Amino acid sequence: MSKSYDVVVIGGGPAGYVAAIRCAQLGLKTACVDEWLDKAGKPSLGGTCLNAGCIPSKALLDSSEHYHRIAHELGGHGISVEGLSLDVPQMITRKDEVVKGLTGGIAALFKANKVTWLQGHGRLLDGRRVEFSPTGGGDPEVVQAGDVILASGSRPSTLHMAPVDGDRIVDSTGALEFDEVPKRLGIIGAGVIGLELGSVWRRLGAEVVLLEAQENFLHFADQQMAEEAYKQFTRQGLDIRLGARVTSTSLGKKNVVVHYTDSAGEHRIQVEKLVVAVGRRPHTEGLFAPESDLLLDEGGFIHVDEHCRTNLPGVYAVGDVVRGPMLAHKGSEEGLAVAEIIAGHKARVNYDTIPAVIYTNPELAWVGRTEEALRGAGEQIRVGIFPFAANGRARASDEAVGMVKIIAEEKSDRILGVHVLGPSASEIIAQAVIAMEFAASAEDLALTVFAHPTLSEALHEAAMAAGGSAIHIYQPKKRK
């Protein structure tokens, strides 16, 4: 007789493990099937985010930032260091320890909440049945579920002209495992992943060339912020080439030869390592049997409604495998919402207030709509901008670059978008998310007391600037 559960979750990443824990908290007998193996070949929860994405990349970004500041930025503070050395293997070891601690924490939470961890591959069959194939072999078994949550995540997109070999041509996971700093690093793609990885290795001394096919830098972000970010990144030594379409690659004896075209014609560069960072795609290979009749959309994502319900009764899908931004926090919120729905409660995810962050230095973060999108839609808006150059805490910390931008509706003053380029943008944006979640106006923020001196005062002043009353920058009066 096959095992049965109230809920079976396929996938143990931020969407899946959060859904499983919440289902268990709500009194549902829950199992989570996950096939991720760590570097040692052992099962590890957390999916791409904890094992090979969000967490390890931030660990290396932090390590590289410490090194760069000591090597290049502390002289003005009266601090000098002699005999500075770089130990890349130790950085990788620390990164792995951070990952191990967090993934082990999820396993402990599963145990505490009585979530059954099925270590292996899960495949949806018809009738809300899940085929489980254990890691390391063994006969597959079929488990019955009252409800199924598909949370299989995503995988790096590939390019046929730059096949990943795991040595000289790598994907984003491989770029987190270099044991020494490449002398010259090429990156295909100057989006979120490419910029973060490029920042790590540039700070550690690599010459970094990013080849971006799009003509506009960070075309998905507010363009005023993107243009300023481009200036900051190029000043740091990132060689960002826009409109650059890679046509072919070849392996030399000790390097990779990359051919690309742009508006000026054909070009050729040689790099020691090449990273393919052209986005991610939904991971649905082997996720479901054909007879299950699960419906995918034209992009290969699982088709769901506004409550993450698929076309199959009792089957839900969340996270990177469905529409919307591929962000860990978006997947987690969907996982929580679905757990509540299965338990008979009401739940929703407000997709209009999902923040996005690029963890470069300066960081770039935003929530809501861009100025270009709003003006293109004919919206009447007012814009308030405040530079970190006029913020006391940013100046004291030697981080006075970038700005905060608030966009509000002209008549109602309701905040429609907030964009932050600068220090701790990833933290500051949370205040904007809360404000927008409560339908706040720019005036609401302008009338709120912010501690001094803090970086968040820039958000306060940007809100005041939207109403023409900023204090610490001069705003010429508009002519009537």
UniProtKB/TrEMBL annotation:
A GO term for molecular function: flavin adenine dinucleotide binding
Disulfide bonds listed in the record: 49-54
Gene3D superfamilies named among the record's database cross-references: 3.30.390.30, FAD/NAD(P)-binding domain
Record's keyword annotation contains Nucleotide-binding: yes
PROSITE patterns documented for this protein: PYRIDINE_REDOX_1
InterPro entries found in the cross-reference section: Class-I_Pyr_Nuc-Dis_Oxidored, FAD/NAD-bd_sf, FAD/NAD-binding_dom, FAD/NAD-linked_Rdtase_dimer_sf, Lipoamide_DH, Pyr_nuc-diS_OxRdtase, Pyr_nucl-diS_OxRdtase_dimer, Pyr_OxRdtase_I_AS
E.C. code: 1.8.1.4
Coiled coil feature spans: none
Cofactor(s) the record lists: FAD
Record key words, sorted: Cytoplasm, Disulfide bond, FAD, Flavoprotein, NAD, Nucleotide-binding, Oxidoreductase, Redox-active center
EC class of the enzyme, as a word: oxidoreductase
Compartment(s) of residence: Cytoplasm
Active site (record annotation): 452 (proton acceptor)
Main location: cytoplasm
One Gene Ontology term, aspect cellular component: cytoplasm
Residues annotated as binding FAD: 58, 122, 320, 326-329
Catalytic activity: N(6)-[(R)-dihydrolipoyl]-L-lysyl-[protein] + NAD(+) = N(6)-[(R)-lipoyl]-L-lysyl-[protein] + NADH + H(+)
Residues reported in the UniProt entry to bind NAD(+): 189-196, 212, 279
Gene Ontology biological-process annotations: 2-oxoglutarate metabolic process
Domain FAD/NAD(P)-binding, first and last residues per copy: 5-335
Start and end residues of each Pyridine nucleotide-disulphide oxidoreductase dimerisation domain: 354-463
Residues annotated as transmembrane: none
Cofactor note: Binds 1 FAD per subunit.
Family to which this protein belongs: Belongs to the class-I pyridine nucleotide-disulfide oxidoreductase family.
Something else known: The active site is a redox-active disulfide bond.
Protein name, entry field: Dihydrolipoyl dehydrogenase
Organism: Thioalbus denitrificans
Lineage start: Bacteria, Pseudomonadati, Pseudomonadota, Gammaproteobacteria, Chromatiales
